[in-house]
Prior knowledge:
The complex is a heterodimer.
Chain A (H helix, E strand, L loop, with lengths): L5 E5 L2 H17 L4 H20 L4 E10 L2 E10 L7 H4 L13 H7 L3 E7 L3 E9 L2
Chain B lengths: L5 E4 L2 E5 L6 H17 L4 E5 L8 H16 L3 E5 L3 H10 L7 E3 L2 H18 L3
Parallel strand pairs in B: 2-3, 3-4, 4-5
Antiparallel strand pairs in B: 1-2
Amino acid sequence: MSSGPVALSLQAQEDVVLVRQTVRSLAVKIGLNLVDQTKIITAASELARNTVVYGGGGKVTVEEVTKGPRVGIRMTFEDAGPGIADIERALTDGYTSGGGLGLGLGGAKRLSDEFVIDSTPGVGTKVTIARWKP
Amino acid sequence: MERIPILRIGRVLLVTIQVDMHDRLAMSLQDDLTARIVSDQAAGVLIDISALDIVDSFIGRMLGNIASMARILDAETVVVGMQPSVAITLVELGLSLPGIRTALNVDRGMDLLRVSEDEGERKAGT
């Protein structure tokens, strides 16, 4: 049984914790192994924090997805923040516009099977990631 | 306000993180620990993260900050109990926790702190 998408508001730090818990429940439900669970929850945590801290708040949609016989988990993070002018640079480890380590975006990409980022300066940022059960 | 409890055993401060921390709670732990190192004249800090399912870049940075601040305040930090899946994820995330000493569990972490304290005393000629 596939459950429908869950939309969560991302405004405060506590919301990041709720995203982690929501992703964990779904990752367990679809039967991801522990390492894959840990990777996708960590990626979700990085992107959720980006949405709150750099995007000025937004939302995330968490859903179970299927592709033929495969099952996976997909998340879409959206904000209406300042956007990212140079995405290549933002994906570079160590580059940060805030006070962080600059690992969030690049790290989330490495921890996901699929990673799509769409950002327009002055309009906002949308990041979609997915992890498939092997 | 919620807080992560800090216990003192001899000259070691022991912290067991058992909740999924939001960022502000992690920051307050960092502040509380540095204050306690001074007020309790602690020689070591042991942080048990065996209950943590994930360590992301923020928590990783907090652990690194605690270790750096403790060192400046003449205390050693050992992080213990990291789950294997967390270690795998951290490395892939790009965070290898430089400057942080680790041990597999609380017992071994305590041994590590005892050894470094003994060495410190020898150097001081006591």
